[in-house]
Each structure stands twice: as C-alpha cells, then as structure tokens.
Amino acid sequence: MRTRKGAARNQAKNRLFKRAKGFRGGRGSLIRSVKETLLRSGAYAFRDRRVRKREFRKLWIIRINAAVKMHDLRYSEFIYGLKKANIGLDRKSLSEMAIYDPAGFKDVCDKVKETLAAA
C-alpha cells in the first residue's frame, strides 16, 4: 500500500501549529491561515529587528539630551565636543552613564566643556 507522508506531514503541521500558538481564531488553528500568518509574522520580525535598532538609538539620544541640558550643553555641542576630546563612548553607554552614574557623566560633560572652550 502506498503512503503519502502521513507522519511527516503531521509533524510538519504540528511544528507550524506550535509556532502559531497564541494566535487568535483561525490564525492559530486552520493550517492555511496559520501558514499565511507565519509568513507575515516572519516579515514583520525581519523588519522590526531593524526598527528596534533605530528606536533604541532614538531613546539613547533623548536620554543623553535630557542629561546634557542639566549641565548647560546642547546635544549637538556635546557630541561634537566628545569627538574633539577623543572620548570614545557610544550613545548607549552614555545614556546608561547618565542614569546610573551621574557623577561620572558630569565629569564627561566637564571634559567636553573644557574642550569646547579651548577650541
């Protein structure tokens, strides 16, 4: 008797259903809808991995700007001064420093101010 991938097909379907767990309605229980939804979700995941990078950078810039304003500087001046002073801290570490190590951030701001005054 001829077989038509019975076990293999069921395993494949179960893998898809497992990935679609938690989806609402037919999107999580009907194989055709599940396939379409998983394709779309993969596209969203691919796109949003890039969007997440942009969003975090925006967040770091907002935090740095807020912290820098307390030290009478503008964000653009601060970044320019960092480059002039050869301080190689990235935006992520600067925003963390502004939150968790205000004294260290103040030292960085003072160094930037000195560099800007000399230039």
From TrEMBL:
Domain of life per record: Bacteria
Cytoplasm as UniProt keyword: no
Listed GO CC annotations: ribonucleoprotein complex; ribosome
Matches recorded under CDD domains: Ribosomal_L20
Example GO BP: translation
Similarity remark: Belongs to the bacterial ribosomal protein bL20 family.
UniProt-recorded name of the protein: Large ribosomal subunit protein bL20
Taxonomic source organism: Neorhodopirellula pilleata
